[in-house]
Amino acid sequence: MSFDPLYHPYPTYRLPVYANRGMVATSQPLAAGAGLDILKRGGNAIDAAIATAAALTVVEPCSNGIGGDAFALVWTEGKLHGLNGSGPSPAGISIDAVKALGHTEMPRYGAIPVTVPGAPAAWAELSRTFGRLPLSETLEPAIRYAEEGYPVSPTAAGNWNSAFRRYSTALTGTEFKPWFDLFAPNGRAPEAGEVWRSPDHANTLRLIGSSEAEEFYRGVLADTISECILRSGGFLTKEDLAGYRPEWVEPISVSYRGYDVWEIPPNGQGLIALIALNMLKGYPASSQESPEAYHRQIEAMKLAFADGSRYITDPSRMSCDPYAFLTEEYAEQRRRLIGSEALWPEAGEPRGSGTVYLATADGEGNMVSFIQSNYTGFGSGLVVPGTGISLQNRGLEFSLDDTHANRLEPGKRTYHTIIPGFLTKNSQAIGAFGVMGGYMQPQGHVQVAMNLIDYGLHPQAALDAPRWQWVKGKTVMVEPHFPMHMARRLERMGHEVQVAADFSSFGRGQIIWRDEKTGVLCGGSDARTDGFVAGW
User: Within 10 A of 517 (CB to CB), how many other CB atoms are there?
Assistant: First the structure.
């Protein structure tokens, strides 16, 4: 597909970026620069993805960290590979143990919701399997930012300050003091343009690089992490860390109007995006947006979320095969439920989160779609003293209802919100894409994929297009620049439409698209964040 780079129906100050030797797209310019630096040193797209991901733990710590999880879709040598870098719950945790501590649901902060961090192991596994440069070299740009400091970018500063205000009220125990010492050293969050540094973070990245993450899971860092969790009343042990390995998985896909849309299989929620697209492809293709098209998208997404909420968990403990949701027969069965008025399906109520997404490509044809997160902002609020490691709170997603599919169990990977996306056509790589932001992610994937494929928008326009977000029941939020005549028509169809005050809850995306004939790369980066496309 060829795009008209000057055609842009939505207000923006950005045009797509073109390059042919390499490209990095992510939510923070310095991180994109780190990835490009590694490409220019002779690294490939996989090395660039690792470098960018590591840099993001430094330059956007309010959205991800060394103590979080990661997923990747990697196109190399004519094949798409999936890496599940999410960690399990501790072997010693249980519903009864958590309830015995006085909790009726999983706590948001502290040591209890901390699961095994998978991101460092994912970096090492990607480097070993497909990288060209040593891991120690790919982490050098991130180490430099952490050690020397960098000026905080505007969106990161805003999110950092929001987290500081929340944590100032919520984190009252002494175990949270290291968080404030590290991330609010002057008694506040750093402002945009203010230089922030974390030498401990740099030292930790050096240890991860020189040991290919062994120190994090089976060395001195593992000892320090487990001691911190024990002091803070949690369950994660050194044995939990030592037993962890990321898992290579077969990506799942649906065919959509001549393209194949790919996602990571459960425990990620990418299945939800595919269920929705499988329903939507049964309607006639349209080159123009319409109230009816928006209505069908919203209804398909609600039905897909209902399925995901009920069934998605650790794949080894799911009650049904994920592929059963992607058959033509099932799509038609669910499609028949979509009428002319808004439905009220049963589904979970979405939560927000902090996540970073990146896409990389090189001149040899390699492409990576990569995402990592601490879950809600900085995560659990626990920082391991002397390491710069902020630990995730991914265990918050577990249910303490022992009849729920995603109930808390020992050594179990929870339902995961973060998902990378990928497009192929005729068994050739077309593009890496993603939209971060909690339960907005599958909704963003569907909207961005349709913008690219149905409406023929170039990557930047596809990202800038106004978004909607199903919230719960019949409630749909729309962005401030969403067409109001469309919103009014949706209300007449039974949707309860709310206009958001800003763009903060609608996700932040990146896209790299490879031209099928020339191989030229076209990149877009979301204007809802400090996003940047670095091309070479």
Answer: 7
Which helix (H) or strand (E) segment is 217 a member of? helix 214-218
Number of residues assigned to the chain? 536
Contact 53, 394 (CB under 8 A): no
- What tokens does 97 get? 């143990």
Residue type, 142: A
157-186 mean pLDDT:
96
For residue 408, what are the contacts with CB-CB under 8 A and spacing of at least 6?
Answer: 89, 93, 94, 95, 98, 106, 395, 398, 399, 400
Are 47 and 131 spatial neighbours (Cβ–Cβ below 8 Å)?
yes
Per the CB < 8 A criterion, the answer to whether 472 and 350 are in contact is yes
- DSSP character at residue 465: S
Task: Say which residue the tokens 């945790």 belong to.
Answer: 93
* Residue 284, number of CB atoms within 10 A of its CB: 5
CA distance 508 to 26: 9
Lookup: tokens for 32: 């994109």
Per DSSP, the residues of 319-371 read SS-GGGGGSHHHHHHHHTT--SS------PPP---EEEEEEEEETTS-EEEEE
Q: What are phi and psi of 53, to 5 degrees?
A: -60, -45
pTM of the model: 0.94
- Angle 521-465-532 (CA atoms, 0-180°, nearest 5)? 45
Catalytic one of 115, 138, 204, 355 = 355
Q: What share of the chain is helix, strand, coil (3-state, %, to 5)?
A: 40, 20, 40
Between helices 220-231 and 199-211, what is the axis angle to 10°? 130
CA 92 to chain centre: 28
β-sheet bridge partners, residue 378: none
Whole-angstrom distance, CA of residue 134 vs CA of residue 310: 42
Amino acid sitting at position 160: W
Strand partners, 383: 390
The residues facing 498 across adjacent strands are: 477
Residue 209: closest CA among 86, 118, 120: 120
Kindly list the domain boundaries of the chain, sorted by start residue: 17-245+375-391, 249-352+419-535
pLDDT digits (tens, 9 = 90+) for 75-86: 999 999 999 999
pLDDT tens-digit map of 18-72: 999 999 999 999 999 999 999 999 999 999 999 999 999 999 999 999 999 999 9
Q: How many helices (H) and strands (E) does the chain have?
A: 18, 21
Distance, first Cα to last Cα, the chain: 22
Q: Choose the CATH number for 249-352+419-535 among 3.30.70.600, 3.40.50.720, 3.30.720.210, 3.60.20.40.
A: 3.60.20.40
Percent of the chain with pLDDT over 70: 96
Q: Decide if 12 is catalytic.
A: no
Closest CA to 70 of 219, 236, 244: 244
CA 245 to each of CA 14, 124, 134: distance values in angstroms, whole numbers, following the listed order = 40, 10, 19
- Residue 281 class from Cβ within 10 Å (0-12 exposed, 13-18 middle, 19+ buried)? buried
